[in-house]
Specification:
Blueprint (H helix, E strand, L loop, with lengths): L10 E7 L9 H7 L2 E7 L15 E4 L14 H14 L4 E4 L1 H9 L4 E13 L1 E2 L1 H4 L15 E10 L6 E5 L7 E3 L4 E4 L10 H7 L1 H7 L3 H31 L1
Parallel strand pairs: 1-2, 1-3, 3-4, 4-10
Antiparallel strand pairs: 5-7, 6-8, 8-9, 9-10
């Protein structure tokens, strides 16, 4: 019990955040509904995540505009890699998004590398047969009714040995994988709140200009695609959290 007499959350979700606007987004209310307390840590503070976290505590490693190999430029990546490896080795649940997914892939022995090209904007996924029977099932479909997720990356990961490839796009064949029931890695942004897309457009203004992507295109797509993405994200992430509880 807390001092005011209310019950403390039985589980904690530790969110490792690299830039302010790439936060838990649509995932945060789902965590609260399922009894998680949330503790967020900024870049360079991975060593503050408790080593004695509970077996059912969750680690969410979010995105950021750096590469997993850039430890010489961003030394804090060393501690993040140690944290991710320890979390996986101890069997605790972990969700990686974009950079977070790449860190998980590397921790499991897969290669992560720069492609020299960008995938930025709202676009659908193609699910593998395994993906269509996974928690990503709400993202299946084609044509005008397909759910469009937010892509924002130039690096790619391989699929670790023993993991299950779940999704692809024409330019990036590895968009998601799972490793058992407690490890989920997503290259794309399902958590992004389309109502806060201006934060992304301002924060990544230099990258957008370099890639020749017009902010107005993403803004318009966020308005058109955001509502369906929010519904699908709630279904996908909610189902994954429910499976963890089960």
């Amino acid at each position: 019990m807390s001092r005011n007499g209310t019950s403390s959350p039985a589980r904690t979700a530790y969110a490792l955040q690299h830039v302010a606007f790439e936060d838990l987004g649509l995932l945060e209310p789902l965590l609260a509904e399922r009894g998680y307390g949330v503790r967020s840590f900024g870049a360079g503070t991975a060593n503050r995540v408790p080593e004695d976290a509970g077996a059912d505590d969750l680690l969410v490693v979010l995105g950021g505009p750096i590469g997993v190999s850039e430890e010489d430029l961003y030394p804090f990546l060393h501690d993040e890699k140690l944290l991710v490896r320890r979390w996986i080795a101890e069997g605790r649940p972990i969700l990686g998004i974009c950079l977070g997914a790449q860190l998980i892939a590397e921790a499991l022995g897969a290669e992560v590398n720069a492609t020299g090209r960008k995938e930025i904007g709202f676009a659908p996924l193609a699910l593998t047969p395994e993906g269509r029977s996974s928690v990503l099932a709400p993202l299946s479909g084609s044509g005008p009714e397909a759910v469009h997720v937010l892509h924002w990356h130039g690096d790619q990961f391989g699929i670790p040995r023993g993991a299950v490839r779940l999704a692809e796009t024409p330019g990036f064949p590895n968009q998601a994988f799972s490793a058992g029931d407690r490890v989920l890695a997503l290259q794309f942004h399902i958590e992004a709140d389309a109502e806060r897309i201006e934060h992304w457009l301002v924060g990544h203004a230099v990258e957008l200009a370099a890639a020749g992507v017009l902010p107005g295109t993403i803004r318009d797509d966020a308005r058109r695609r955001g509502p369906a993405l929010a519904i699908a994200a709630r279904a996908v992430l909610g189902e994954w959290l429910d499976r963890l509880s089960a």
